[in-house]
Amino acid sequence: MRSLTQIQFLRASFACLFALTILLRFLFSTTNTSLNHLILHLVSQNPVILLSCAWCLALSLFLYLSRRRHPVLLVDYACFKPDFDRKCSYEAGQYFVRRSRRFTTASEEFMKGIYLKSGLGDETYAPPFIFQTDYEARLKSAVQEAQEGIFSAVDSLLQTTKTDPSQIDILIATCGMFSPAPSLSSMIVNHYKFKPDVQTFNLGGMGCSSGVMSIDLAAKLLSRDRRIRYALVVITESISLNWYFGENRSMLVTNCIFRVGTAAVLMTNDPARRSSAKMELLTSLRTHHGANDASYKAAFQEEDADGNMGVALTKDLIRVAAEGLRTHIRSLAPRVLPLSQLLAYAYSVISSKISGGETKAKVPDFTTAFDHMCVHTGGKAVIEQVGKVLRLSDEVTEPARMTLHRFGNTSSSLVFYELAYFEAKERVEKGDRMWMLAFGTGFKVCSLVWKALKDSRSEGENPWNDCIHRYPLKAW
Asked: Is 288 annotated in the active site?
């Protein structure tokens, strides 16, 4: 039985043969030149040549159309902003820790020290159970946390883009640490009554890079199939069931830096939406460093000695992130850097090898390739390490630092809160190139490169609208 690709190829071949016949007929009836006589001679004496040419033309046309990637556009996105009463100030967090009576004095002091050095401010948001009286996170609390963020972000996005749920062809939902049954993607389908043939994907355990990875997956699906028009990507995280009630210090860190956040993104390959879309995806890159044991266990979910479940952020994490980033940018550089930077980088690498490692290869200047950067806001130390490796100024890392201060580490959705910061500041102009960079457990490094299709402007749904006038902070 012939496949759909074979049938499409035969149709293209017959169309080309028909078109070529009509063209020759037109030439013969309207011209009387030496070329005309030559073609008549070839056709009458060598019909095989005509068929071969037509077949080659059909094959070339088919291969071009089938392999050509369709442009992938970001129509719009929305970030969840919880209610005012979910703000987790230092005092609110400290009050919860003490009234729960689940931590020793030493652990309380340790978390206090981590929080005060974390770069988080007093307006980040915590899940519902933090403000309840039973001090225990249950499945109900986790579902409530997920639904509040997902439904709010998706409602806002569909309303802003005037998109009917029946138009969604692909749904990708990602959450690193919460995987209920039915899945989050099924929950979204049920709530919005998506059509029966919607393609759904539910990604879990991918860490803070899963938002960027989900966009990459959606882009690959959209670029290869014109029958697919719209992809909805929902990016969230759940803290409720992952709050750590133990004494392992490497696990206590997560209580101090992770906060509530969700983003919803609408993407399309429909050229008719180009005038209303915000950005076009130029390239993406994912590198996985899990073959190395230290990288694999840099951020690891496990039980402590007392059986309490938590995620351990080891001391190796910053070093692993730096090494992973260096490997990642070696693959990314040829795709994005201008020729002058590539030549300078190649020269430094060759010089380093000739000198036997006495001179180190210089990191290329990525600010020559990008106008803006959304750097992974995993924590203050992570931002500083990325800035050190890439030789970025405080001005370039400002959006990441301010996003960490205002919203905390929202895991996989964090780069879109950074994008919202750029838009609230109205810094993005048409034609600007933007780099989104995120790290994930495993250990993964992921990049998205966008081109702005219009000037940014502060909009009513932007989560920064009520506070953008206070940023950037003078001290961080």
From this structure: yes
Token representation of residue 276 = 């209303």
Other CB atoms closer than 10 Å to residue 9's CB: what's the count?
18
437 closest CA partner among 462, 460, 419: 419
238 with 389: CB under 8 angstroms?
Answer: no
Q: What is the rounded distance in angstroms from the CA atom of residue 9 to the CA atom of residue 15?
A: 10
Which structure tokens are listed for 268? 């399309």
Q: Residue 438's closest CA among 261, 259, 210, 214?
A: 210
* Residue of 242, 405, 446, 462 marked catalytic: 405
Backbone angles phi, psi at 260, to 5 degrees: -75, 135
Out of 16, 255, 289, 376, the active site residue is 376
Among candidates 57, 382, 410, 376, which has minimal Cα distance to 257?
Answer: 410
Token pair belonging to 444? 């993964």
pTM: 0.84
Per the annotation, the verdict on 256 as an active-site residue is: no
pLDDT tens digits for the chain (476 residues)?
Answer: 334 445 555 555 555 555 555 555 555 555 555 555 655 555 565 566 556 666 666 666 666 555 556 789 999 999 999 999 999 999 998 899 988 888 999 999 999 999 999 999 999 999 988 988 777 788 988 999 999 999 999 999 999 999 999 999 999 999 988 999 999 999 999 999 999 999 999 999 888 999 999 999 999 999 987 788 999 999 999 888 888 999 999 999 999 999 999 999 999 999 989 999 999 999 999 999 999 999 999 999 999 989 989 999 988 899 999 999 999 998 999 899 998 888 887 888 788 778 776 777 778 889 999 999 999 988 898 999 999 999 999 999 999 999 999 999 999 999 999 999 999 999 999 999 999 999 998 899 999 999 999 999 877 789 999 999 999 997 66
Q: Decide: 453 and 430 in contact? Cβ < 8 Å.
A: yes
Of 372, 374, 446, 462, the catalytic one is: 372
Q: Indicate if 376 belongs to the active site.
A: yes
70 is catalytic: no
Check 53, 70, 191, 288 and give the catalytic one: 288
Q: What's at 187, amino acid-wise? A: M
Q: Which of 176, 150, 174, 154 is nearest to 164 (CA)?
A: 154
Instruction: State the CB neighbour count (10 A cutoff) for residue 124.
Output: 26
- 309 beta partners: 303
Query: Residue 47: helix, strand or coil by DSSP?
Result: helix
In 3-state terms the chain splits into helix, strand, coil percentages (rounded to 5) of 50, 15, 35
- Among residues 438, 416, 412, 454, the alpha carbon closest in space to that of 156 is found at 416
CA–CA distance, 474 with 462 (Å, rounded to integer): 23
Q: Which of 431, 72, 461 is nearest to 233 (CA)?
A: 72
Catalytic one of 208, 256, 374, 446: 208
